[in-house]
Every structure is written in C-alpha cells, then in structure tokens.
Amino acid sequence: YLVKIYFFKRLKKYNYIKYMNNNNLNRDQVLNILNSDTNLISLSNLSSELQNDYEIVLAAVKKYGLSLASASDELKNNPIIVLHAIRQHWRALESASIELQNNAEIVRVAVNINGLSIQFASDMLKNDGEIVSKAVRQNGDALEFVSSRLKKDKFMVFNAVTETGTALVFASDELKNNYDIVLKAVKDRKSTRLNS
After folding, report:
1. Measured torsion, CA atoms of residues 66, 71, 77, 79, in degrees rounded to the nearest 10
2. Predicted TM-score (pTM) of this structure
C-alpha cells in the first residue's frame, strides 16, 4: 500500500499522470513527450492514426523497442523502424512483420545483439548455418530454437556448448553422447562453478 502511494506521488510530482491516457494528445504533444526524457507515453494508447505515424513510431521505438508491438502493420514492415526497435531491445523482432522476420540482414542484427532472438526468425533462417552460428556463439542456449538439422550439426552444437555448457540439452540425442561435445560442456560447467 505504501509503495502505491509513493509511486503515485512521484508520478504526480513529475506531471506524468496526465500522460497515462494518451488518447487526448495531439501529434505535436506526443512528439514533444517522446523527444523529452520521459518514457511514460504508451504507443498502445494512441489512436491508430498516430500508431501509423512514421515519426512518432520511430521516436517511440528508439526509446522502448518493444513498443513496436503497438505500431501499425505497415510500420512493422518498415526495415528502418524495425532495426531501431531491435537495437533498443532484441525482442522487438517478435513484433516485426513476417517478411522482416525472414530478412537475413534484420535477423543478423538481432542475433548479434542477443542470440535468443533467433526464436523469432523464420524457419528458413533458423536453418541458415551462418545466422545460427552467430546466434549460438552469442548465446549458446539459442540452440533450443534452431532447426533439427542444425541441432545434429557437430560444429554448431560445439559452438553452442563452448558458449554455455547448458546448451547440451538442446542438441540431438546423438550429439548428447558425443565425447568431445560432452567434455566441452562439462568443462564449461566446471569453470562456471569455479568462478561463482
């Protein structure tokens, strides 16, 4: 209860309460708020017209990449908007259009930031050796989301367990019994425990 009171006093102190219902704001007001230091404007509460406004959506995703989810379908298919959203938060790839989830350049940017973003890529790209290699080298647990063909690839699995030994659980049954891969995974687990 005291936390709620404190929270609302802080909101009131900084005049954020008036931004909580964004439907009454015009385009210029929204842009001014987005270009200020505050993050308390929600794209999801704006009119569909403003959710389709390039400048507003760009400003919103630069501050909070996950606001891409509330953008219009047209802007979810805009590579510039989507790239800015992904650079701010890798999970924004989830809200990108299917076309952009199938775009190698967009997905490459996302997996370089966080390999787990491969889960939002198209099935075709989850089977792309170069992109998957980048993903598992950035985060070995990305192996969970790749194609079954690449879970059987010794090189790919070795890269994943090199990054984190726990990735072994996502490998094919055959590679879970491969001496070199298991040894690498166990070494990673030992070094993790020693550094803890």
Report:
1. -60
2. 0.82
